[in-house]
Amino acid sequence: MEKQNKRDMICRRIASELKDGDYCNLGIGLPTGVADHIPSDMRVYFQSENGILGAGPRPESGMEDPDLINAGGGPITAIPGASYFDSFWSFSMIRGGHVDMTVLGALQVDQEGSIANWMIPGKLVPGIGGAMDLVSGARQVVAAMEHTDKYGKSKILKKCNLPLTGHRVLTMIVTDMAAIKVTDEGLVLVDVAEGFTVEDVIKATDADLIIPDTVGLFN
Q1: Which of 130, 148, 159, 190 has the CA that lies 20 to 30 A from 205?
Q2: pTM for this model (two decimals)
Q3: Spatial distance between the Cα atoms of 109 and 165, rounded to a whole number of angstroms
């Protein structure tokens, strides 16, 4: 599957978890695509920590507004009723527990529900950004990521070995292979992506998985 198709599939599956009226923060990169998969009859208020509540999907090519960008600098649109504010109010919203869901990219996650998404030791990084605030302030924390790295090694581990963004904060993990719920009992395989089997997911996952009697399918 092409990379963009994988990204769309991941974002579409995450979008299905959102409810009408939700307030949702999207991290930079892959997660921003979630806004492109919200049904036209549903209103979700996407928040970006650079100061907008009511961000819409990516604009059509040639229709970009240089004054409308997300936290990663990518072009966005604004839905009717969108509001703008400075970073003080943005982070007050996040830290105050007013965000229903945040969707973040991840370098690693583990079966305890921890996430590492900001630093690889020895490599230059721009900084942590707002990720630590988001994982501690949002009601649901979803990791959007590829299941394995470029060498085919699992990015869903028994325990993360990179510096953590948050310890035991995840509620869900969605990859190009599976949708996994994080529970007190462990990682529960909810859905498998089209083209894969439960056995494929188990083989590609370092962490222990709980396999229910019925596993769904998404595409």
Answers
A1: 130
A2: 0.94
A3: 10
Indicate the residue type of 78.
Answer: A
- Amino acid identity of residue 75, one-letter, is P
Q: What is the pLDDT of residues 159-190, one digit of tens each?
A: 999 999 999 999 999 999 999 999 999 999 99
Give the integer Cα–Cα distance in Å for 129 and 71.
9
Residue whose token pair is 């092409």: 2
Indicate the Cα dihedral angle 196, 200, 201, 206, nearest 10°. Answer: -160
């996650």: which residue's tokens?
109
- Catalytically active residues are 49
On whether the CB atoms of residues 47 and 25 are closer than 8 A, the answer is: yes
Output the six-digit token pair for 142. 């979803």
Place of tokens 């596993």: 215
> How many Å apart are CA 147 and CA 175, to the nearest integer?
5
Domains of the chain in start order, with CATH, are 3-218 (3.40.1080.10)
For 34-49, write each residue's pLDDT tens digit: 999 999 899 999 999 9
